[in-house]
TrEMBL record:
Residues 261-352 form the Chorismate mutase domain. It comes from the Bacteria. Pfam families: CM_2, DAHP_synth_1. InterPro entries: Aldolase_TIM (IPR013785), Chorismate_II_sf (IPR036263), Class-I_DAHP_synthase (IPR052899), CM_dom_sf (IPR036979), CM_II_prokaryot (IPR002701), DAHP1/KDSA (IPR006218). It comes from Xylanibacter caecicola. Keywords: Coiled coil, Transferase. PROSITE patterns: CHORISMATE_MUT_2. This is chorismate mutase. Its EC number is 5.4.99.5. Residues 267-294 form a coiled coil.
Amino acid sequence: MELELQSLNLPCDDERLIVMAGPCSAETEEQVITTARQLAAKGCHMFRAGVWKPRTKPGGFEGNGETALPWLKTVKEETGMMVATEVATPEHVELALKYGVDILWVGARTTANPFAMQALADSLCGVDVPVFVKNPVNPDLELWIGAMERINQAGVKRLAAIHRGFSSYDKKIYRNLPMWQIPIELRRRIPQLPIICDPSHIGGSRELIAPLCQQAMDLGFDGLIVESHCNPDSAWSDAKQQVTPDVLDYILSLIAIRDDKMTTEGIVALRKQIDELDNQLMELLAKRMRVCREIGQYKKEHNMTVLQTGRYNEILDKRGAQGVLCGMDPKFVKEIFESVHEESVRQQIEIINK
Ligand SMILES: C=C(O[C@@H]1C=C(C(=O)O)C=C[C@H]1O)C(=O)O
């Protein structure tokens, strides 16, 4: 199904960048208002704060719920910023709308659950409010698109996707792995859908916010949602990944915003070179496959197995090392040769069984 989309029509500083900032959780009225005032003073147009917090384990701070909604209303009235919060159930939607919340977002755990998404969609039927849908916790693009389709089918046309990274057992650098190839594929599939990057949840730490924001801009994403707190170290949730409005302003001032629509003569000439090289790559691959088929024929005549792990390992090691010398990521080189090997084995199996 095709998404039927309308422009988000949100205020932003220049033609492209949407920045939504605010604390992970609305903790107290004072914390909300203080943070909002500081953000508004820095020129922020959209304020975010979690009111209902889905926590991994019980016992943590699960948000102030309805009590915090009038605080958001005050932010709106006092600063003129639009306000946004996360909704996970139809009751959340009803209450958020009742208190005049301007933008709703759906969290990663909710996106992963089609029943919850359908219930949310049903509660949004006939409501014209922008809805931002975070990627599901697992790296499943179809599930992400499906969640947005449900909301869209309910008549919500002002939709955006939030890229917040994907859960992983491996938490060495990122809290949630960015797996950029997934939002990139989303952009390819639905080019008109705005994509907002959430560097706070991808990175899980302050130091990673700036480079992640830049990476999102380098990819031509449309905006950022960043956690900002007037006193991050004392935050009741996500303390390590929140920054003060001052720091956020500094980070944003350093970000280079790229123009994704520019095509110049220079790039056209360079792309011609790429086309020529891709042609050569394809011809070389076809040549390599011809030799592989010959090897397949030889193996058939000599009753040898197609898979030769010793040789396969030799290739992976040799080309991996060569890749490093050529300035390429060894993982990338490994994946290329794994794919080449897979196709080579497939073609040889066809020959050996003829
Ligand atoms: C081509 C061969 O068969 C298989 C495919 C390989 C390849 O494409 O390079 C390597 C080892 C084998 O698993 C071979 O045995 O050399």
